[in-house]
Amino acid sequence: MSTLHRVRAVRLTEDGELLEAPGGYAVAVSGGRIAAIGPYELVRAEAGEHARVREWDGVLTPGRYEPDAAAYLEAMYHPDPREADELGTEPLTGPALAALEMTDTRWGHSARRGVQRLLAAGTTALSGPFARPAARTAVERSGIRVLPGPRPRALVLSGAADFAVFADDGTALVTVLDGRLVYRRR
Fold first, then answer.
1. Considering only CA atoms, which of 183, 182, 162 is closest in space to residue 34?
2. Which of 65, 81, 115, 162 has its CA 20 to 30 A from that of 155?
3. pLDDT tens string 40-77
4. What is residue 151's predicted lDDT score, i.e. its pLDDT?
5. Do both 86 and 52 map to the same domain?
């Protein structure tokens, strides 16, 4: 079954032209690949009546690329919400990080929370390599693509269905990797 992501507009590249149409635009996903991109009514007719439709009030793009992911996941501690009273909610670095007893298990939990923050920001690709096994494992399990360096990314037919939908204020509404919804703002 295919899924249609109906949005106000689509950007085929991160900084490309905004594509809009009366009734909205849609990206059809089938088997983790982009099957169609175009005005909603045309894509809907092509997808058939059994396609699932998800509607998002935003702009669909290839998502963010995070060039500093290794430092973000390996040189910062992302506190557990249960530690908020003691450590706060923002990532810890420097003396605050040095004061913590960091075990492999604690690094693993931190890396998973860091990956969740990246997904919540609409990140669909990042840089590596990762020296800490816990960070490498968290990234591999998430499905975020690790790229050797910044490169132009675009939404293309038959390409991987990796994208994000952003609200007018720039926050991510959803992040999709290989056609799977991996983050949805509540």
1. 162
2. 115
3. 999 999 998 899 999 999 999 999 999 999 999 999 99
4. 74
5. no
